[in-house]
Amino acid sequence: MFNAENASAEVIIQQVQGALIQIRDAQTAAQYLRDFSAAVSLSDLTAAPPNGPGMSTATAQAILSACADAWGHAQLYQAGTDPRNPGAGYVYGASQKLVISSRTR
């Protein structure tokens, strides 16, 4: 991100603020995912066109799970707890990795 030995205080503060803003914005995106996933069902996602996108059941389940986990992670950030209470050691990113594995940065 930066070299703390060679960066000014202003540059360090701006870089840290920028990263924190991205984290905050990601929590908002997680809420949008929650809203989306609450508005659709598995059958909505697997319905064949023209009634739906015709996803496979596995893909639809992965998407809904990733949306729920993103929201749960956002709840940890915002409220300190995930109301779903998945238990110790739960890896929120696992479901998301399934959905984004084919994408590269």
Task: Give an overview in words.
With 105 residues, this protein is mainly α. It has one domain (9-100). It contains 4 helices and no strands. It has helices at residues 9-39, 42-46, 57-79, 93-100. Helix 1 (9-39) packs across helix 3 (57-79) and helix 3 (57-79) packs across helix 4 (93-100). It is elongated and about 55 Å long. The mean pLDDT is 91.
**What coarse outline follows from CA principal-axis ratios?**
elongated
Spatial separation of the terminal alpha carbons: 16 Å
Radius of gyration based on Cα positions: 18 Å
Domain count: the total is 1
Mean of all residue-level pLDDT scores: 91
Report the β-strand fraction as a percent range.
Answer: under 5%
Order of helices and strands: HHHH
Helix content: 55-70%
- Tell me the total number of β-strands: 0
Largest sheet: none
Determine the structural class based on helices, strands and strand pairing. mainly alpha
Residue windows where pLDDT falls under 50 for at least 5 positions:
none
**Number of separate helices:** 4
Which terms summarize this structure?
105 residues, mainly alpha, 4 helices, 64% helix, elongated
Entry summary:
The chain has 105 residues and is mostly helical. The protein contains four helices and no strands. The longest helix is centred in the N-terminal third of the chain and has 31 residues.
